[in-house]
Batch of 4 targets.
Target 1
Amino acid sequence: MQRLLIVLGVLLIAAGLLWPWLAKLPWGRLPGDFSVEREGFSFHFPLMSSLVVSVVVSLLLWWWRR
């Protein structure tokens, strides 16, 4: 558990330092992400982005457990 928390902390620090470049990635604007904007209302549902993140995290966890 300690190693997991340290790794997560390092990843969060790295993401914070790399944020100017990470913000330019098309996450949330991939084909399959839904965005509805009307007067006084906006709804964003990043379906494809969520699926991509889920697959990557699943593969990383599978690789780590091996």
Target 2
Amino acid sequence: MPYTEGEDRHQIISCQIRCFVEEENPVRVIDTYVESLSLEELGFHMYSSTKAGQKPYRRGDLLTLYLYCYMNGIRSSRKMETETKRNIELMWLIGKLQPDHGILSVFMKNNQKSIKKAV
């Protein structure tokens, strides 16, 4: 055939997501940077409650998501939510977590000063 063809959509993918994120990919820098930060010292709101309900997301994961989106010109929490479902680099970066736009919006609102310190 004269066209380049992709893989069959119905075939099981044998490679894990990490195969799609090369060693030189800038997302690895974001991951390393956030891991090196002391989020409590920067003033991020940390949750230590044992209340019933949904478990909170790690602040580091949300900050990583925010930084990736910021670097790629994505400012809306709704667009961030969409990116977590379709962007392979982002899936790798935050371990396929998919926080909704409400969680992202509250995180950004409650941690504005801390985010500015981290950036």
Target 3
Amino acid sequence: MAYLSKDLSVLAYANGFTLWHYTTADVANTMDTEGYFNAASTMLRVGDIIVANVDTAGTMKGGLFLVSANSGGVVDVNDLTQIGAADSR
């Protein structure tokens, strides 16, 4: 799949920082490839955080992406920092 603007929403904004939410059937490794979020380059700023639900059609995961670069319309996010990696009980 690819980035879909309808699946990106603002959760909070303050002091030049935005906390976003994004949901997708794509896996995290696809999303953290440079360029995945290029269509949102006018909105995303370095330092913004994206709370994400990924692989929603498979084994869903949740986590955080940090926008690490945005230059010339090319956006890059760091690897997913997964939340709730295991359920042992």
Target 4
Amino acid sequence: MTVLRISILFVLAAVAEIGGAWLIWQAVKENRGWVFAVLGVMALGAYGFLAALQPDANFGRVLASYGGVFIAGSLAWGIIVDGFKPTIWDWVGSAIALVGAAIIILAPTSTDATAETAL
């Protein structure tokens, strides 16, 4: 259940942060108006709360892991919303970032008995 919860929170956080940044981008770069900017700020605030709901208590670990999810999510958003056509290097880089994120957030920590015996 914990891996499922972590995954759902990361996906929701990605939608909130990427969506919020996109809304602000639309307000500033595409002159879509202040309503887009306000909605973007609200979405970015929601991202902060969603990230704080992660079961891991270490801010740095959660945000570092989220970085990989953000990379993949940003490319997905670009494909779905903006018609972005990724290169093979975009796909490879995204996969590497997701593997790195999974290692950071799912690997045993020094408080786990298995991690202590491995050192």
